[in-house]
Amino acid sequence: MLLDVSSILKIQGAKIELDDNIGLHGAEFLGESYRFSEPLRIKGDIYNNGQSLTLNARVTGKVETECARCLSPVVADVDIEIHELLSRVEDGASEDEDIILFDGHEVELDEIVADNFLMNTSGKYLCSDGCMGLCPVCGSNLNEVDCGCDREYIDPRWLGLKDIMDRRDDEN
Ligand SMILES: [Zn+2]
Ligand SMILES: [Zn+2]
Known about the structure:
Layout: E1 2-4, E2 15-22, E3 27-29, E4 32-34, E5 40-48, E6 53-66, E7 73-88, E8 100-102, E9 106-108, H1 109-121, H2 159-171
Parallel strand pairs: 7-8
Antiparallel strand pairs: 1-9, 2-5, 3-4, 5-6, 6-7
The chain binds zinc ion (2 copies).
Residues 135, 137-138, 140, 147, 149 line the site of one zinc ion.
């Protein structure tokens, strides 16, 4: 959603109240996938602080994703706070400041919401607090079955190290 901020660009203290729907497409991030079957709701405001624009908003809704431990589908509540500063490229703000740049008189809210969502939520959703996750040996969902694997198993990447340790044991 493009937000037209022309009415507040020149007036210090001027404010736009936000109460809108943000229709995000799904997102993939760090191997996790997120789908939004209904729009997220953004409520808050954006105002001219004299130097830049300040966006303060709360975003709520639902997301479909996977449990970070057992990968089963999860529908979770989204509830994040967004606090960002925005400045026009034309006003000479530099990239290295902690500020979001935009051109002209429109702010791309979707992208800001998506970025904030991903930064806030990555790896956080679980199907339940006590989720047992997947067996590292056979991949079974340990919430559903007790596969009986010996989970003292060592990740293949550590086997080289184990050889060294074993050999050292032999020497003793
Ligand atoms: Zn789980
Ligand atoms: Zn197993």
